[in-house]
Each structure stands twice: as C-alpha cells, then as structure tokens.
C-alpha cells in the first residue's frame, strides 16, 4: 500500500515508519528543512520519496504519486511557538491533507490524538491550547470525512513511552535522573496512566491499515494496555531496574491544576482487529535503560 506519513522524524512517527517498512508498505514522508532526521537516518534509503514542505506545496505531493492512506503523526505542543503557528500545525495542516486525500481518492486518513482529549478530561489545564486544537481538528475532520468519501480513523494514544522519546518528556527525564543518580523531585505519584510501549503503538496503526476494508467511515481506537498503573509504581519499577541510588522525593511537587488522576484505554475494538499490547513494563523500561547506557536517546 502507498502510505504518506507525517511526523516520521518524531518519536511515535519514527516507530510507525519502521513498522510500515518492515511490513513491505511503500512509504513517502513529509518533512521540513528544519527536521532532524537522526531517528530515521538508517531507513531513508528505503523510502519512496521525502517531500520537503519548504520546497514544495502540499497538493503537488498528491499530484506526483498515488496515496492510498495518509497517516498523520505530526503535532505541535506549542513550545516556543505563537498560537497561530500551533493552530496551523494542529488544525489547518491536517485538514488540508484530509481535503487533498479526498480529492485524490485516498482511502483513509489516520489521525494521531491524545488521551488528554477524552470527554472526561475536558477540564485538564495542562497543554490547554494543544488539547483544544487537537479536539477541534478531530471534530472538523469527522464532519468533513463523513461528507467526502474518505475514511477517517482517530488513534487516541494513552501514555506512550519507549526508545527515542524527546529528552524533555517525563519518562525521559525520570530515566536520565535515575541513571545519573541525582535527586528526583516528584508529585505523590498517585495519578494513574495506561503506559503503552511505542512499538505496540506502531503495530496498532498497522492493524488498522490491514483491516481498513472492515472499518466504517468514521472510527476511533483507544491505544493502550487497557489498565492503569500509578506514576509512583512506574518510577519505583524503573528505580529497581536501574539499580539507582537516586533519592526519590515523592510529594515534593504539587499536582498540576485539574490533574488527570486516572486514564486507561477501552481497546476492545482494536483488539477485535487482532491487535494486542505485548510489551510488559519491565521489558519496555529495560529497553530504554539499554539505549541510554549506550549514550542514545531514551
């Protein structure tokens, strides 16, 4: 299948790219001149095309080749960006891709979303503009797809972790602190998350692609293990696996305003496609430790 992938240089996107290539799909990616290609450097020669948005317009991508499925993993959290830039990245850009997908007869647009956007978490103040922009895009995309003959699939990811995550993210920060044996200030850690290993997430996208013919016009899949673990349990397991002597200062930080105290996936419809989360926390954490010990990104 001919796949157009955005966000391939990012954390989730790079793992989705690997899985697509390993399964024999023809993949083209969209980048910018500022994109850091280090995560996918060893797979570049396997790509069909690399489109640089600073050198070409979006429609010419669809004019130059057949696109069967668009997978959108690119996103903006709004760090060091104006709100208008974030809205362009999280709303205008994916909607344009969806429109062009419909115009050039792509079968489906697969979006990447967050557990922040669940209805029960509507008051969560952290990354407020990010959550609201993702929610607005999802709402508009559903309406558009329903009227324009293209399938729209929303992948709502729980707390993804694994190799090659960004250094400023919570788990990367925790792992680095444990390995460097510096003191680690934390909340009480009672908030519970559905920690899902990134390679299991990537396989969820493949399960959707493999079953597109059986998926209705508008669909959503929550991607997680289906149960939650407290942040404290996660950190203490990582502490044990690293053999760290870091001082864990649980309770030295307050919870964020309107903190989400529990989230986990209802993944029954994803399991019905033959997918399951296979990675236990101990293995996933150990894989991060191994890479960081070698000087790589968590």
UniProtKB/TrEMBL annotation:
Residues 3-215 form the NAD-dependent epimerase/dehydratase domain. InterPro entries: Epimerase_deHydtase, Lipid_A_modif_metabolic_enz, NAD(P)-bd_dom_sf. It holds the Pfam family Epimerase. PANTHER family: BIFUNCTIONAL POLYMYXIN RESISTANCE PROTEIN ARNA, UDP-D-APIOSE_UDP-D-XYLOSE SYNTHASE 2. This is Paratose synthase. It comes from Paenibacillus silvae.
């Amino acid at each position: 299948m001919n796949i157009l992938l955005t966000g391939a240089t990012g954390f989730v996107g790079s793992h989705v790219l690997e899985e697509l290539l390993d399964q024999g799909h023809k993949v083209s990616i969209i980048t910018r001149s500022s994109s850091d290609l280090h995560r996918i450097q060893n797979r570049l020669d396997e790509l069909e095309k690399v489109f640089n948005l600073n050198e070409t317009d979006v429609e010419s991508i669809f004019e130059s080749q057949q696109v069967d499925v668009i997978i959108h993993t690119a996103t903006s959290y709004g760090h060091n960006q104006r709100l208008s830039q974030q809205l362009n990245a999280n709303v205008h850009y994916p909607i344009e891709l969806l429109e062009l997908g419909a115009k050039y007869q792509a079968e489906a647009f697969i979006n990447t979303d967050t557990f922040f956007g669940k209805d029960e978490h509507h008051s969560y103040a952290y990354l407020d503009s990010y959550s609201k922009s993702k929610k607005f895009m999802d709402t508009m995309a559903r309406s558009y797809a329903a009227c324009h003959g293209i399938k729209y699939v929303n992948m709502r990811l729980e707390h993804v972790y694994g190799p090659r995550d960004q250094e400023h993210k919570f788990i990367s920060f925790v792992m680095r602190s444990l390995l460097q044996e510096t003191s680690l200030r934390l909340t009480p850690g009672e908030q519970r998350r559905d920690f899902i290993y990134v390679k299991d997430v990537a396989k969820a996208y493949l399960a959707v692609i493999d079953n597109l013919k059986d998926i209705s016009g508008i669909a959503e899949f929550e991607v997680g293990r289906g149960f939650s673990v407290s942040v404290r349990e996660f950190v203490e397991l990582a502490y044990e696996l690293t053999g760290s002597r870091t001082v864990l200062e649980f309770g030295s930080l307050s919870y964020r305003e309107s903190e989400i105290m529990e989230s986990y996936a209802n993944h029954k419809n994803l399991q019905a496609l033959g997918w399951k989360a296979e990675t236990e926390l101990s293995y996933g954490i150990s894989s991060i430790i191994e890479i960081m010990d070698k000087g790589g990104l968590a």
